[in-house]
Amino acid sequence: MMWDTAAGQCIAESAGAQVLTVDGEPLHYQRENLLNPFFVVSLPR
């Protein structure tokens, strides 16, 4: 669910990481579906 990952995303992005869907799009929370799509967290090169 969105609220399960929002804080972790903030921490990861504050540390310089990227949180992206498997399609390479940023993970967004302004949507009707509360379930998160599959996503990855990675540091840029």
TrEMBL record:
Keyword Hydrolase found: yes
Task: Return the EC number.
Answer: 3.1.3.7
Q: Which domain of life is it from?
A: Bacteria
State the name under which the record lists this protein: 3'(2'),5'-bisphosphate nucleotidase
InterPro entries (UniProt xref)? Inositol_monophosphatase_CS (IPR020550)
A molecular function GO annotation: 3'(2'),5'-bisphosphate nucleotidase activity
Q: Please, one GO biological process term? A: phosphatidylinositol phosphate biosynthetic process
What are the record keywords, sorted?
Hydrolase
